[in-house]
Design goal:
Blueprint: H1 3-15, H2 23-30, H3 42-80, H4 83-117, H5 119-152, H6 159-188, E1 194-196, E2 199-201, H7 205-210, H8 213-243, H9 249-283, H10 285-292, E3 298-299, E4 303-305, E5 308-309, E6 314-315, E7 318-320, H11 323-329, E8 335-336, H12 350-381, H13 388-414, E9 419-421, E10 425-426, H14 427-430, H15 437-464
Antiparallel strand pairs: 1-2, 3-8, 4-7, 5-6, 9-10
Helix pairs in contact: 3-4, 3-6, 3-8, 3-13, 3-15, 4-5, 4-15, 5-6, 6-8, 8-9, 8-13, 9-10, 9-12, 10-12, 12-13
């Protein structure tokens, strides 16, 4: 055992207090495992994993939220008999199938990368979180089977039987993502196992995956993000059509439903973000310090908007006194640990984390502002906003929501560095020693570029398909029925 290994063990012991009688056992047991391999392309391996994740996670959002949108539309049709709802549900179900197919490809790549790029991680801890991936696999097969039945079953099954086949799709989208999120929560706050002689023992998979306090805020945060992303992206498509003069009843219904969902979720997400910040302060104080660039431990710690961390302090930022302490503990005078509390090699790349976090928060507040404008007009006047600027903002909100989503996961994952399993295994200890990472990286970029082109082509063809809807029945809610209102035919600047 080298001096570096002993230093790591001492730091681990300081962070997680244990009985003095167990120190010797811990040192002997942990001496052999997790030896770093000679991998000069560690950064490229991390970039490959990050690229796959950034491509896959927006598709996960649609897998979570979009089946609920489709079923809601079909449910309205079953209740009212209005064919507009059925038309939208049927068209959206084709989009749902196309995105699911792409998600299968990106999810498979992501799964293979875990084993190929991080073999020590999988070999050492696989039996702890393997149950989560197993259940995720079952969810995937259920979703694949029933999504095919659902899309194929239009005009072939009775209306109620067809609706019933969509319910497992929505449930499987929820459970599959739940399993993956539970694994990620475990990586941030590992529990449910012990290490003896470099091997994992006393494994309690259910406790590790579902008894983890870190899971619940991460789960709620991600599910709200899924409805925000799917809602704003879908609404943005019809806002674009609205700006181009297509303002019929079909466009209004297809705009109002996802926009309403996203508008309700966006302000709630700010509250959940506060909950997440307090959990991070409790479980990962180094990550919290990196979010702000707080070098020295202090009471009444501030937040700096913008600026750049130079290794000791944030320069050129706008200081908001005591805000970090308030966010971390709901106490403006609370003590917040700084980056100085841990050695330099245990600190994440601060500026990457700060920029990602502030990007996520800034876009989150912008989306909440758009949502409030819509909700106020809707509740007070029972109509859509008239200004063209609102619809332009709505078109931009879709891509911005994806940027915020990816920035949030950068905050979570990069903020955990240098640990792949927090406090137990460093990323450099988990990476493969195999050659060929640059070749794999280049191949991955080409694959995703091809997928992007294919998805754009498929969605464009689906969007250009003619919409044929019979006249709807009377008695349906005004904003979801009838022709365009006179005051909505022209949108002032």
């Amino acid at each position: 055992m080298g001096n570096d290994d002993l230093g790591t063990l001492r730091r681990f012991a300081r962070r997680r207090p244990i009985r003095r009688t167990n120190v010797t056992v811990l040192v002997l047991a942990a001496a052999a495992p997790f030896a770093p391999v000679d991998q000069e392309y560690l950064f490229e391996a991390r970039q490959m994993q990050a690229l796959s994740f950034a491509v896959h996670i927006p598709l996960v959002c649609f897998g979570i939220a979009f089946p609920a949108f489709v079923l809601f539309m079909e449910g309205l049709w079953l209740r009212t008999g209005d064919p507009v709802y059925r038309t939208i549900a049927k068209r959206w179900s084709k989009v749902m199938l196309a995105l699911f197919a792409v998600g299968v490809v990106t999810g498979t790549i992501l799964s293979f990368e875990l084993g190929l790029l991080w073999p020590s991680f999988m070999a050492t801890f696989g039996e702890v979180f393997g149950l989560g991936f197993t259940l995720e696999g079952f969810s995937f097969f259920v979703e694949a089977i029933f999504i095919a039945i659902y899309v194929y079953g239009w005009d072939r099954l009775s209306p109620r039987a067809h609706f019933a086949t969509g319910v497992p799709v929505a449930i499987a989208g929820f459970t599959g993502s739940l399993m993956v999120i539970s694994v990620n929560a475990w990586m941030n706050n590992p529990s449910g196992f012990a290490l003896e002689g470099g091997r994992v023992t006393d494994v309690e998979p259910l406790a590790a995956l579902f008894g983890n306090d870190y899971l619940w805020h991460e789960l709620v945060h991600m599910y709200l993000a899924a409805y925000i992303v799917a809602g704003f992206l879908t609404a943005g498509v019809y806002a674009w059509a609205w700006l181009r003069g297509r303002r019929g009843r079909y466009e209004r219904v297809a705009l109002v439903v996802p926009l309403t969902v996203a508008a309700v979720a966006s302000p709630v997400q700010i509250v959940v973000g506060d909950w997440a910040a307090r959990e991070v302060a409790r479980e990962q104080p180094v990550k919290l310090a990196a979010l702000e660039g707080l070098h020295e431990t202090e009471e009444g710690a501030p937040v700096h908007l913008l600026g750049w961390y130079d290794g000791e302090e944030v320069r050129y930022g706008i200081e908001l006194p005591q805000l970090l302490s308030l966010l971390a503990s709901h106490d403006p005078g609370a003590r917040v640990e700084g980056l100085e509390e841990v050695p330099a090699d245990e600190r994440p790349p601060v500026n990457v984390v700060r920029v990602a976090f502030q990007t996520m928060v800034g876009i989150g507040f912008a989306l909440a502002a758009i949502s409030l404008v819509y909700l106020v007009v809707w509740l007070r006047r029972r109509r859509l906003p008239r200004s063209r600027w609102f619809y332009r903002a709505l078109v931009a909100a879709g891509p911005l929501s994806v940027v915020a989503l990816v920035a949030g996961w950068v905050t979570t994952e990069v903020g955990r560095q240098p640990w792949v399993v927090y406090g137990h295994m460093r990323t450099e200890e988990a990476v493969t020693g195999a050659d060929g990472i640059p070749v794999g990286y280049a191949s991955l970029v080409l694959v995703y570029a091809g997928l992007l082109i294919a998805v754009a082509w498929i969605l464009r063809r689906l969007a250009r398909a003619p919409v044929e809807v019979a006249a709807g029945p009377r008695g349906v809610a005004p904003l979801l029925s009838g022709g365009t209102r006179p005051d909505e035919r022209e949108l002032p600047e």
